[in-house]
Amino acid sequence: MAIRPVVTVYQDLASVTVTPTEPDLNCLVVGPANWIQDYFAPGTSNYEDKANIEVATYGAFQASPTASLPTGPAVISIAEPPNNAPGALLNTDSVTIYFDAGRVRVASGVKGTTSASTPNTLTTSETPTATTFATPGPGYVQPGDVLTITDGTYTIARTVMTVVSNTELLLTSDVTGGSYAPGSNQAWAIERPFIDTAISDSFVTVNGNAVSIAGGVTIPVTAAGASQGNCLVTYATVYEQYTALRQDLQEFNTVESVTDITTNIGRIDGRNPLAVGLFVALQNTTSIVQYVAVLSDDLIGHTGVRDLINSRTDVYAIVPLTQDTDIFAMWNTDCVGLAQPDETTGQPQKFRVCIGNGELVTTSTLIQPSTTGTTLQATGTAPAQVTQVTLTGVASLLTNGVIPGDILTVTVTSAAGTIALGNYPIAAVISASELQVNVASPFAGAGTVNITAEIFHADGVTVRIASAALTGVVTAAAPNLYLILQDPSGTFVSSGLEAGDIVQIPVNPNATITAESVLTNFVVASVLSNQRLQIVNNGQDSSTTENELPHGAVRTGGSLITQGSINYQVIRNLSKDQQVTNLVAVAQSFNSSRQILTWPDKCDVAGVTNGTGQPGYYLSCAVGGMTAGLPAQQGFTFLGIAGVAQIYDSNTYFTDTQLTNLSNGGWYVFVQQTPQALPYTIHQLTTDPATLESGEYSVVKNFDFVSLFFVDILQDFLGTYNVTPDTLTLLTAALNTGGNLLLLRSVAKIGAPLLSFTVTSVVVSPTSADRVLIYCAIGLPNPLNVIELHLVA
Length: 793
Prior knowledge:
By secondary structure, the protein is an alpha+beta fold. It contains ten helices and 42 strands. β27 (about 450-455) and β28 (about 465-470) form a beta hairpin.
């Protein structure tokens, strides 16, 4: 076919133009987000969320003095925290119940007298105990207190104007003029108004999101400089302060300002770790910061986040807000696995690092918790003084809850009158009728005539055992001290126990040892055998200190100790050198260029409510922020961080040699020259410090940056190009163009991400026709760590 003569031009390019996207080494903060509802704004007396957290009223306002006060384990039941975030789970330890606009009963009786002739006067003639209206202490009344009094049908309330005497009060208003009929032998009570009072946790039970408040609530009352003991609350408005773990922030998101944090996550408060972590990270970056909240603050919660972000290509520095090494291990394994080429399925690689934080361990456990301990007496250790008392004729010391610190009062009545022999703090309860006191007992060694005893709570007001005539009393020196711990399955010698080690036993010795157990410490004096050891002799138990191994009754009261099933463990206090060795072992257990562990374990976060004494993982947030905001080739050694006001357990705790050993062992160690100076790291190391390439964090992240940069260039060729000589030429040209771009991207002091770049080979794989093998020689910048100066004179 003939065509018209024409000149045809084909515009072929010798190379492709590449405009690679610069990879972002983004910071992802992962941790718990807590919804916070406070009664007071922290550190102030100003109300914060009070208007939103009212839940109920307790008792009845100005009820009859004969009316029953609230009793039972669940007078008030709160099914769900007030004003809670959607689905948030209540943090059990965070609950504080406040009573406000309340009344507390400071005195009461049934012998009140009012009269129409003196209508603003109340007098009493209470027996057997007289009233003490004018005497500071229990029963003290002051102007402004409220009298409630009943004639049997009607109850009235009047305010106290003047306290005339221990038995007489003047009121601001007359009692006459209504249905109430003045008279004698009328039941009465004095109530004192109170506001803004947190009640004891002992009256509060938390089960999931539900909270129960028991009856019989008491609060400590003080007036005229003297304690009035714990007095019963008769009425109050009830508020629930709490924090709750949010369940509505489990989607991947970003923040770029403080406003974003407060709007999306909540208050920047030490009780809200995710908000604080983002706050610190933002102060150390010029970029956005990513976040995901965990559903639970544990390995399961973090594993859920791992799965959520698995396919994302824009995540780099992951900062878990925890000090749990099991969680770090999960993240590190994931980071290492994603960075490996997948030759089986072709899953795209992802380059990530995990930035964690450590926890200071000052003890090591030599004997794991055992349940088969028995305590024995050591011969020849009996105190010489009279301290043991056997009481016959009083109620059971056990069932009445007598505990160390209570007061034994003993009196003797003689023909000459009543003689009070004294008050004796109780050091230990041995059985239902035997106890030991702090000091030598001065009354007769034995007797059955005219002796009475009474036992009070340490407050001096609450009666444990009412006054009773004794049918027998015996006093004696305490027996030998309980200083020997025996365990038939013990391994005290073979486990290397020595003097100075610590035996730990729960306050209730028959209770299982848990992380929450309150433990009593006893110092080992000598190891007698594999099955027996002896503790240091600090003398007999006292009302405030447990010096002997547990025996007799549990010091919290109510039951006898079962020997043969005493729970205990043995620990050793570590020296600081041993602490460093322990920490280095933790870092080397990872030995990974993709795992960074920052130190120290505690810090103060600047400008944050409740920001003092926070975990050290906020230092990791600063490192994550710098990773995202500074050039990839930027080294962080000696570079000050923002957002952290003070650090602990670093250069003011360890010596310089110990810190050096810690750093060389794979810890990213921060120090601070003064409390006002910025913290900085002495060496930006990963947990694999064996080589510059694996140990220097700037080299690791820069290599990742360069890798991502070239991946972005080559990604455009996949699938749309065939393997041809032209394609190989274009690949070479594209890589050279990208390399030149990085070589020119120089920054003062730190240079460019690449020092050199050469494509050395681009060939088709001999084993797979659809695969191209490319080899590039690159030069990565290394940090300047050592300057060797030789001065030759």
